[in-house]
Specification:
mainly alpha, globular, 6 helices, about 100 residues
Length: about 100
């Protein structure tokens, strides 16, 4: 499986939300393992899609707040609502670029 969907990778990398809508801590190594690629390929994918950590850090966007919101949504309201919230977070982030 190769990296392909920026939204899915954004959810995993920044929000800790799996494609199934479950919350769990992940890092670049976990994502690389899931997609059978290297961490360097994950970072290149993030850079190509304006999702690299440098971009996020230099954007006026409250990522930490949304991480908590998505985690709580996944735990309290279920996967569908967590993914719906993640979609809104992703759209808002893209609007800040």
């Amino acid at each position: 499986m190769k990296l392909g969907d920026p939204f899915e990778v954004f959810c995993w990398y920044y929000l800790g939300l799996s494609p199934e809508g479950e919350y769990r801590f992940v890092n670049g190594n976990h994502i690389a393992q899931r997609y059978n690629c290297s961490v360097a390929e994950v970072l290149a994918f993030l850079r190509k899609n304006q999702l690299h950590p440098d971009t996020v850090l230099n954007t006026d966007f409250p990522m930490a707040r949304y991480q908590v919101d998505v985690q709580m949504a996944a735990e309290q309201r279920g996967p569908e609502q967590a993914l719906e919230l993640a979609g809104r977070v992703f759209a808002e982030f893209q609007g800040r670029l």
